[in-house]
Amino acid sequence: MFHQTSVASSGQVATSCTVKFQYVQNYPDEAPVFEITDLENLDEEYEDILNDFINEQISENLGMAMVFTIVSALQEKIAVIIEDRKRQEEEEKERVFREKEEAEQKRFEGTKVSVETFLAWKLKFEAEVNELKAQRLKDNPEPKGLSGKEMFMQDDKLDESDMIFLQSEDADVEVDESLFQDMEDLDIEDDEGLDLDDSDGAVD
């Protein structure tokens, strides 16, 4: 004779399984044969746990009608499994949150700097800058300007440029007479006490 029952637990997520019992000739003095099927929201690893639990219940209840007792105990067992699983999930969420919070805190705190670590960073930074400069010069070399001598050596007409400029009509030099207007205001008087002879430079 077979007996099939579904065991479910209450909660936000329905969790259940089906247990099939087969009564043997000497039941209840002999253990019935059972099979667990149709696990809902229970991983396969829990099937072994439930099998062991039912076997324990059978051993404790041999000699008396036990199917109802086993089903009731199994329902409580599933409820405990759900609570344990929920607790583990909450602990995992809390652990992940705590790790993220600690990582964020470390990011704001930064790295403690000592004299040794600063000098090491400075040397590394300067080496990187020098390497970048060298690479930049290698990729884009700066053009070197010609000296005056090199310009004359390349173009012999440059030494005639001044003469050409002076001989051109556009080379007239204009003098700003206003610069000399203040000369008339200077008080320059001849020294009457001296009579200089322009011819021989003697004094009368």
From TrEMBL:
Q: From the UniProt entry, list the residue stretches annotated as the region Disordered.
A: 176-204
* Entry-linked Pfam families: RWD
Keywords, alphabetical: Coiled coil
SUPFAM superfamilies for this protein: UBC-like
- Ranges for domain RWD come to 1-81
| InterPro entries, A to Z | GIR2-like, RWD_dom, UBQ-conjugating_enzyme/RWD
The residues forming a coiled coil are: 71-106
Q: Which domain of life is it from?
A: Eukaryota
Residues annotated as signal peptide: none
* Protein name per its UniProtKB record: RWD domain-containing protein 1
Q: Which organism is it from?
A: Mytilus edulis (Blue mussel)
